[in-house]
């Protein structure tokens, strides 16, 4: 091995002691968890929106964003459940570029994993204290979930991780909904297998412990579009795609059949403003079939304070430094429209 | 004539306003004096004075008048300082030693106008401040050549007081003799071994016989009592004044780098957030870590992650726990910031005991 073991990092217990969740925060999370889980079990017919920046690059802008979401959530509370996405670690196709706050607490500086581990907890803790939202994050490194398990209400497993055994087994041990994205190549059986694996219990190694999980019945599908072998992007949010997924679920015997549609990524071809049309089209599809209406639980939308994206060095407050996002005005309009369209 | 009268009337009116404002300003100074006494800060604060004058001068548009305004402001500040020193009259400052000793000089320099109170040892001075018998305790905690003053470091860790000011006193050794004595007639000198060592070259050059004394102030007292003009003491100029001696020759020490740092201990911690000052700021943390591999390194990693430069790290045994140690860390930077707050918060779970002893400006 050519690794230099630089320093031993903190354990989750220590970081949690540094930034403990407040009693109010814990109470808020319990309420959020119940509301979100009810959507997946079908007890609630509200639309779930996992919405927020592609990557949480800076604390101040992200906190402002989630605080604005709080006001918006109150306005649409009868129709929509909002889970802000605060993505603190980013998978990169070639390993180069900004890997998220976990790696680079300051996007302009070198990696500092110790600071990163603390920063991501601090950010999620601030979010719940400031806005009452327990948020969504991507599970890129399963071992790190324990730094945030008392703060997150939703976890997504990305298109590049969904085939990985450790991700699937860790998902099986979580008590919050876990969304399994279809892989970048679009093979839905990989995603369905991931859901199957995570809904069952396992014995495995987690953080150097032998652990046993009970299985997570709230594991579900996320359709994010795909790239074919010729490098061409294809959407998979259309009525036919949803009907196909319904069939797969029907044959599988899995519980809580559910899907979120990711309106960005390969579904929009990263044309962030197409998300508005795609979101509405998905809702339109649900009106044509009660089965699809029952299957579609919500949407995953990439949105931030400013439209589009920038390079990390440009420094525009509230503008994505990774994939382009929908700006606040359009986001607000969209969420209000979705509340009207969701029946 | 009437014209002159009118202008003078105007001046009288302005003076009347100035008088009222001056009174208000002095009332503020009274509050400042009380604050400084409670937090162990000196009346004299050159950085603040400079800033006040600089900012004040900007308010005056006429360049010629500005020059006079600067002098006016300086006078006002000087009066405010005198007033504060008079108010400090009731402030008791504990030190360890006898009048004329270095600790006493540190008190006189940092708290002019205050009442120095001598205690037989460091702990007694410290406890006097803890108990409220004194407002401030001035104790040496580090010497540039001899290193830490272990007993004071231990008090810093175990006691309840904070440090908001550090006073640096350079050891300046003078030949002190009877008034009117001829320095060429001096044959024997008395002083503390450290002071004699610092003046070794001078003693050799003048073929003087050295006699050791337990401290420089007692040596001065002895010379004074002997009344023998061939005897002299080595010590600070302040000691000469106290024991009726005269400085026969100033600065006879050849070792110039002997400086002692005194901490002004008080019962209140002060974390000021006047960010504008250009002066360097330091702060002291003391803590114990869990008895596990890498636990000290974890704390240092946290300090490093917040970009604080460590000037000094040392360990001291915890007497009540055999072979257990606590750490003294002096850091460069301002702890009264978000960064500092986060650092303390993150250190807390890693340390069994953690104390922010204080933060102070460096000179």
CATH superfamily of the largest domain in chain B: ACT domain
Coarse morphology of chain A: globular
Number of helices of chain B: 12
**Sequence stretches where pLDDT stays below 50 over 5 or more residues of chain A:** none
Q: For the terminal residues of chain B, how far apart are their CA atoms?
A: 56 Å
Strand order of the largest sheet of chain A: 2-1-12-11-8-5-4-3
Order of helical and strand elements of chain A: HHEHEHEEHEHEEEEEHEHHHEH
- Identify the CATH class of chain A: Alpha Beta
Mean pLDDT of chain A: 95
Terminal Cα span of chain A? 57 Å
Q: Which consecutive residue ranges of chain B, at least 5 long each, have pLDDT under 50?
A: none
Descriptive overview:
The complex is a heterodimer of chains A (343) and B (363). With 343 residues, chain A is α/β, with parallel strands linked by helices. Helices cover 39% and strands 15% of the residues of chain A. Chain A contains 11 helices and 12 strands. Chain A has helices spanning 12-18, 23-41, 59-75, 113-131, 165-172, 188-199, 239-252, 265-268, 274-286, 290-295, 328-341, and strands spanning 47-52, 80-84, 135-138, 152-157, 178-181, 203-206, 209-212, 220-223, 226-227, 233-234, 259-262, 296-302. In chain A, strands 2-1-12-11-8-5-4-3 form an 8-stranded parallel sheet. A two-stranded antiparallel ribbon of chain A has the order 6-7. Chain A has a two-stranded antiparallel ribbon with strand order 9-10. In chain A, strand 6 (203-206) and strand 7 (209-212) form a beta hairpin. In chain A, helix 3 packs parallel to helix 4 (113-131), helix 6 (188-199) packs across helix 7 (239-252) and helix 9 runs parallel beside helix 11. Chain A is globular, with a radius of gyration of 19 Å. Chain A starts with 11 loop residues before the first helix and ends with a helix. With 363 residues, chain B is an alpha/beta fold. Chain B folds into 3 domains: 2-89, Up-down Bundle (Chorismate Mutase Domain, subunit A); 174-249, Periplasmic binding protein-like II (D-Maltodextrin-Binding Protein, domain 2), CATH 3.40.190; 269-363, Alpha-Beta Plaits. Helices cover 43% and strands 26% of the residues of chain B. Chain B has helices spanning 2-39, 46-59, 63-87, 102-110, 122-131, 150-158, 193-198, 200-205, 216-226, 237-242, 295-305, 338-347, and strands spanning 92-96, 115-119, 136-143, 147-148, 162-170, 174-177, 188-191, 209-212, 231-235, 246-249, 259-266, 281-289, 309-317, 325-332, 351-361. In chain B, helix 1 (2-39) crosses helix 3 and helix 2 packs antiparallel against helix 3 (63-87). The longest helix of chain B has 38 residues, at 2-39. The radius of gyration of chain B is 25 Å and the shape is flat. Chain A binds chain B through residues 7-8, 10, 14, 17-19, 112, 114-115, 118, 122, and chain B through 294, 297-298, 301-302, 305, 342, 345-346, 348-350.
């Amino acid at each position: 091995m050519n690794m230099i073991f630089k320093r031993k990092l903190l354990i989750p217990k220590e970081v949690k002691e540094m930034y403990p969740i407040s009693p109010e925060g814990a109470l808020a999370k319990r309420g959020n968890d119940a509301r979100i889980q009810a959507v997946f079990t079908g007890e609630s017919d509200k639309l779930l929106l996992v919405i927020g920046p592609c990557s949480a690059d800076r604390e101040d802008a992200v906190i402002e964003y989630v605080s604005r979401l709080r006001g918006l959530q109150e306005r649409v509370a009868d129709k929509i459940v909002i889970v802000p996405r605060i993505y603190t670690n980013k998978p990169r196709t070639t390993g180069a570029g900004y890997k998220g706050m976990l790696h680079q607490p300051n996007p302009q500086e070198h990696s500092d994993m110790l600071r990163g581990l603390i920063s991501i907890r601090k950010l999620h803790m601030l979010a719940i204290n400031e806005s009452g939202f327990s948020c969504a994050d991507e599970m890129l490194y399963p071992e790190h979930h324990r730094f945030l398990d008392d703060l997150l209400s939703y976890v997504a497993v990305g298109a590049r991780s969904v085939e990985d055994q450790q991700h699937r087994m860790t998902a099986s041990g979580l008590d919050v909904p876990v969304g399994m994205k279809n892989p970048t190549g679009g093979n839905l059986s990989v995603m369905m297998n991931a859901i199957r694996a995570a809904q069952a219990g396992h014995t495995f190694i987690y953080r150097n412990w032998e652990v046993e999980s009970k299985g997570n019945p709230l594991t579900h599908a996320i359709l994010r579009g795909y790239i074919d072998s010729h490098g061409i992007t294809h959407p998979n949010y259309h009525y036919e795609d949803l009907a196909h997924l319904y069939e797969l679920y029907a044959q599988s015997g899995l519980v809580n059949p559910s899907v979120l549609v990711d309106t960005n990524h390969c579904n929009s071809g990263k044309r962030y403003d197409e998300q508005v049309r795609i979101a509405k089209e998905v809702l339109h599809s649900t009106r044509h079939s009660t089965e699809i209406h029952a299957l579609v639980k919500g949407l995953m939308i990439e949105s931030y304070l400013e439209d589009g994206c920038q390079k990390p060095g440009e420094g525009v407050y509230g503008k994505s430094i990774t994939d382009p996002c929908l700006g606040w005005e359009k986001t607000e309009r969209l969420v209000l429209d979705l509340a009207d369209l969701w029946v | 004539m009437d014209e002159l009268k009118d202008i003078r009337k105007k001046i009288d009116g302005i003076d009347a306003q100035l008088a009222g404002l001056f009174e208000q300003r002095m009332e503020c100074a009274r509050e400042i004096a009380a604050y400084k006494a409670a937090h162990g800060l000196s009346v004299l604060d050159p950085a603040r004075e400079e800033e006040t004058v600089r900012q004040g001068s900007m308010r005056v548009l006429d360049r010629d008048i500005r020059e006079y305004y600067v002098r006016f402001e300086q006078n006002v500040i000087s009066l405010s300082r005198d007033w504060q020193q008079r108010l400090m009259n009731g402030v008791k400052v504990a030190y360890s030693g006898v009048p004329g000793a270095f600790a006493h000089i540190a008190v006189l320099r940092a708290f002019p106008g205050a009442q120095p109170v001598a205690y037989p040892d460091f702990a007694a001075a410290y406890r006097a401040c803890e108990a409220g018998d004194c407002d401030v305790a001035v104790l040496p905690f580090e010497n540039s050549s001899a290193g830490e003053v272990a007993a004071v470091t231990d008090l810093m860790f175990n006691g309840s007081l904070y440090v908001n000011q550090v006073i640096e006193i350079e050891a300046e050794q003078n030949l002190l003799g009877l008034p009117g004595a001829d320095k060429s007639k001096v044959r024997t000198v008395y002083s503390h071994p450290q002071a004699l060592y610092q003046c070794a070259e001078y003693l050799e050059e003048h073929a003087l016989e050295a006699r050791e004394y337990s401290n420089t102030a007692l040596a001065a007292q002895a010379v004074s009592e002997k009344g023998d003009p061939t005897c002299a003491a080595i010590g600070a100029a302040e000691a000469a004044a106290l024991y009726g001696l005269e400085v026969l020759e100033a600065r006879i020490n050849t070792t110039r780098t002997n400086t002692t740092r005194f901490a002004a201990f008080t019962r209140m911690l002060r974390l000021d957030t006047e960010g504008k000052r250009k002066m360097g700021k330091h702060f002291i943390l003391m803590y114990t870590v869990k008895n596990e591999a890498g636990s000290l390194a974890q704390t240092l990693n946290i300090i490093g992650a917040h970009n604080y430069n460590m000037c000094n790290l040392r360990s001291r045994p915890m007497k009540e726990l055999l072979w257990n140690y606590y750490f003294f860390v002096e850091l460069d930077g301002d702890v009264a910031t978000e960064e500092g707050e986060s650092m303390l918060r993150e250190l807390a779970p890693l340390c069994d005991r953690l104390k922010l002893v204080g933060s102070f400006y460096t000179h």
